[in-house]
Amino acid sequence: MLVQSIMKSVFVLKFRNDNYSLERGILMFVDNVKITVRSGKGGDGAVAFRHEKYTPLGGPSGGDGGRGGDIILKANEGMNTLMDFRYKRIFKAEPGQNGQIKGMYGHKADPIYIKVPTGTSVYDEDSGRLIGDLVDNNQELVVAKGGNGGRGNIHFANSKNQAPEVAENGEPAIEKHIKLELKLIADVGLVGFPSVGKSTLLSVATSAKPKIAAYHFTTLSPNLGMVKLENGLDFVIADLPGLIEGASNGVGLGIQFLRHVERTRVLLHLVDMDPNNGRDPYEDYLAIRKELGNYDANVLQRPEIIVPTKLDIEGSEERMAEFKEKLPADADIFPISSIRHTGVEALMNHTSEVLSKAEPIHFDVQTEETKEYNYEPNAKAFTIEKDPEYEHSFIVKGAKVELLLQRTNLDHQDGIMRFARQLKSMGIEDALIEAGAESGDSVTILDFTFEFI
Prior knowledge:
Strand order of the largest sheet: 5-3-10-7-8
Helix content: 10-25%
Distance between the termini: 6 Å
CATH topology of the largest domain: Rossmann fold
CATH architecture of the largest domain: 3-Layer(aba) Sandwich
Radius of gyration: 32 Å
Number of helices: 8
CATH class of the largest domain: Alpha Beta
Number of strands: 20
Number of domains: 3
Order of helices and strands: HEEEEEEEEEEEHEEEHEHHEEEHHHEE
Structural class: alpha/beta
């Protein structure tokens, strides 16, 4: 009955540290963006027949459609920014070419490669699911797979139907909204309250030139520097913006930059020994540890070197002695004065030794070079519900049945009949009757409506 009703209805219906941008004169850090990606639709299979002069009964010759283009993210260690995505946020791949006569296949569309910095985490914005982590150079992640091409009528000939007017449409494109988060890949992270000397230490130990000033939150974005040592054990160090109590709950700069601590293998915890700052060094130390633990408890299990700073100020030695008495006996302490460069070289050498013994951080990534993210639709084939706006009208939903409609070429009678048979074999006709559908009622799948008989 579905064959007749669909045949009747078909004729009615026919997606600098370069991490900075200059906005209104303010230097801003960009480490997370949202983009839209859309793969290419598969090419449609062709319905064609051979008409050569000396080839009687030539039979079907419609070729297959080509595959649509993929959207692939590729990690590039030469990049250190998500800045480019502030100006282009929609990426679309080309569709595959339709099948041709004489059994010729359509061309496959080229994939679209999107370069991202190493250390980029990719999330599905709609579900919040982690799609993948790109931490190695040239690592690839297919975030939107191009649709497969449809089969031409050359595949549907059989002994009963030697001239089939049946072909498949290509698979539809996949559009996804994804979120990119850059988490800096540094070996060592500098943490501590604002104005404890992190930027000063970075400028002394490396060739980096962070902004340094005598007020809180001078550093508004992470800075990276390379520490080069005579023993050859070089490492990358990151100066993270100053944390304060409550940062893990959004106070101050909040958790905006706490994510960058995740990838560091060793922490240098700087604590201010200035006796005139009105603060208790030990309380500051505990407060930062608490915020790190609230964000990610695993961070507290990593090696930590406690670095008392500003030892050039009068009275700082006595203050440091009191501070050390409150720490555990096995605490790793290295006092410095970045202004006088006292202890900095020894601290860097010691850090390289600790780093060489630190456990590597394991990321949840695939071992092969390219990983593919596949959208997993609802396993249920279809559902049937009454249309609330129209009486005697039913709506059929489901990823499987909707894909079946999208891949069916309804321009030919044989295609219509094949589609109706497939719906019947899926149990949709029986399900409609069970739901109360009667002859004359309308049935809708996506934007296709037919009369139920």
